[in-house]
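step 4 of 6: structure.
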Amino acid sequence: MSVQSQFRNFAIVAHIDHGKSTLADRLLELCGAVETRDMRAQYLDSMDIERERGITIKAQNVRLKWGDHILHLIDTPGHVDFSYEVSRSLAACEGALLLVDASQGIEAQTLANCFSALEANLTIVAALNKIDLPAAEPEKRAAEIEKVLGIPADEILRISAKTGDGVPALLDAIVERVPPPTGDPDSPLQALIFDSSYDTYRGVVSSLRVFNGTLVSGSSLRYVNANALHDAEEVGVRSPEPVAVSALGPGEVGYLIAGIKAVGEAKVGETVTTAANSGTALEGYIDPKPMVFCGLYPVDGDEYVELREALAKLRLNDSSFTYEPETSGALGFGFRCGFLGLLHMEIIRERLEREYGLSLVATAPNVEYRAYLTSGGSEVVDNPSVLPPSNQIDRIEEPFVDVTVLTPIEYVGAVMELAQQRRGEQTRIEYISEERVELVYTIPLAEIVSDFFDQLKSRTRGYASLDYEPAGYRVANLVKVDVLLNSVAVDAFSTIVHRDKAYEYGRKMTEKLSELIPRQLFDVPIQAAISGRIIARQTVKARRKDVIAKCYGGDVSRKRKLLERQKEGKKRMKQIGRVEVPQEAFVAALTLDS
Amino acid sequence: MIEASVVHASNPVTEFGVYVHIPFCSHRCDYCDFATWTDRSELQSVYVAACIADLRRRVERGSVPLASSVFFGGGTPSLLPPTDLMAILAEIPLADGAEVTVECNPDSIDRAGFDVYLAGGVNRLSFGVQSLDPQVLVGLGRTHNPENVTRVVAAARTAGFTNFNLDLIYGTPSESREQWAATVHGALELESPHLSMYALTVEPGTPMGARVREGAPGPDDDDQAAKYEAADEIVSAAGMNWYEISNWSRPGFECRHNLLHWATGNYLAIGCAAHGHDYGRRYWNLRTPERYIAAIKNGESPESGAETLDAATRRDEEFALALRTRFGASAEGIDPLVVSEMTAAGLLHTEPALDATNARLILSRRGRLLATEVTVRLLAENSAGTRYDGVLIDFGKEPTSARGQDIGLRSSTR
């Protein structure tokens, strides 16, 4: 077993596309962990979605040998949705490698994660990447980093992860600057789980970092927060292929398989100790709560059972999303699902469709509201259609977030305009260099959840970056807008919005639906209403003619087939009151840009 | 109420029809997707011979009952030399008082032709008029001059024809409501005892279909509905009755051959692309004249396809066709709730049947225009629960209790 002074545990903090995965690939090569012939791009990103989108979703770790030292690299997710996972990964480290694109400069996400690392007392080793590119401006970017984060510019390394230039020096700097772990081998076992994933054959495989004591293969373990006992079936390290070891000592990072069937029983942030020990939980454990919700429905109602099974399987792998059955008059049987954020929502939906072959329709995402009732009680509302009637509500609170935007100076006006449109209150503005500005706003999360990110990207031509963190609940002037089809509310389109935006939503939705809903035997009013008061209206005029006039030359078969097709079409119709609506119309209304 | 003395629905057991398709035209109209050719006049005499051979073979086999109606449709039957057409007719065994109709293009027939027809046994003519407005005719790609219609109708009358029909088409995109009303009034002035008025339908694969696909305006349902209602108003005021969605006549001038179709009667198909029906077996002949001729020459069957309907489908078909007529469809087995909904919506009314069995469901004017929807609703929700569910049940043989179980089974899967 190696001694602690040889270990260096570090994470990489980087914005998307700043070269984190490429650097990880170079480190694997330089340290001889992967034979050149086995090398593939984004080696540590194992999911298809990660490779295609160029993002990291699951934290990964790998053990590298550099000279006499053993480095544990922990590759963390880089998105605001997974900030809790990032914080646990950082907690498993003594140092963080801040990787910044030498032409783009520091971004909001990097900044947020870097502050988290500083708060966790991690040593930061900063490096500017992609110095081989003509657009690289390492001097300017180094000055920015010094100004914003206080890291002296002359300590910032210059590398090209692509060519490998400067990477050996970076490894040396990590060894020199990041302190070794200082765990007590004689204390009771204390290990932190910073990632868990589900393997069909082996059950849950957890990544963990031992702080004190020794994790011995075959021993009995206690999961402190879950208060559950499991046996250590296998303990090992990834280099990067898994290698079983007999034990992991203080300061070591590796994996643990303990016969657990669902990641929910081995959550990120969990503390593992020996069964005999009552154990003290490591600080910082929380159970992250979903912040964004939507209904997921199979496009084909027959796929409901498949969807339920797919959700159950996926949850074995990701305990941070929630689902419970719900029924919609418009969409049939489905599930109300909760996610950490929009990206998380997209990923889950995409995995359901891709890995389980389902075709899904999602209702517009919403946040979780707190409705305080005049009766004195309160309700948590994650589905706008079940908000109690307005006369029973004293006030509604909605979640707010502190949003940090980093943008080139020429787009400051555009960002401010967007933030104001989204009910944002500016709390800070800072010029981090001559050309880049940091803006901080407090904004209702619901405004971010609609299409804030897309708008920000388009208004700043992709140059601005965004990060946010929860800022608590606040009272807001919110109303529920219902969409009525022939006086019957269509649950899938009910929404909770700020009073000032209710009319716009109502107008848009009624117009959209009036184009999509086929004409019926009678006039169908499509209305938007706040507590029964109509704020917008469209009418689908009654159909007047559908008959095939001619019955040519005794060709009755043709006419009958038309009737049969018509009848088949009817089977796919959803009945909303007296109105028949094809499922496709609802799907189209929900998928069209809202 | 229907006046029993005037007309009955066709009796599908005693009536028998023969349809002869003549697939030749001098010019193809822009909206037409029928089986017809403008470039094969050299085939005409061979084709006539094939039709005769086909008929002879069947008659010799003893499979052709006496026909109560014969219909020469097309294409343009009047394009054939009248003696050729009469040679075909001569092969068809006719019942006493049989109705014999020939479709005529106003441009391709004259007094001499009418004389031959009359002598050969033809007693009904159907003229493809479509419109009496020159501008609308151009929009339809028709050749004839409206004045020819007046002339040819007068010639037919002089020859001795009293029973004839004018085909009209409404709802061409450029046609104004006034132009359409003028055509209807013009047709009434010609004192035709029968009118067929069809909504223009754009079919893919026609010149008009191509124009609409490229963005030219197509017919509008609302416009056509308004024109239908206006026409029904005008001709009713002039003493004509609707007896099928697209057909009106003076009392006693209903087309017997059409009635047979709508009563799911039997009819024989002669000629290419013709459709026939024989007790639940629907069949259709080879589409081109060449293939039809070849099949007959080789002693093969000219059929290109057929379907045999199960009892449930036959009942549905019978219901759907009957509902298109003024005699209505039997309410037996139809969910009374849907009937009252449709009645309340003004789409339907019920009448006690003449033979005092079941009430009959009869479409209102508005209901006729929405016949597809009304039919589907009445059939889809019917209380026997067996229609359109793809479950084959022989109605007459199932005990009532078994039908009851069927309802439970199906409603649980809906």
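step 5 of 6: annotate
 - Chain B touches chain A through 50 residues (CB under 8 Å).
 - The CA atoms of residues 352 and 359 of chain B lie 4 Å apart.
step 6 of 6: archive
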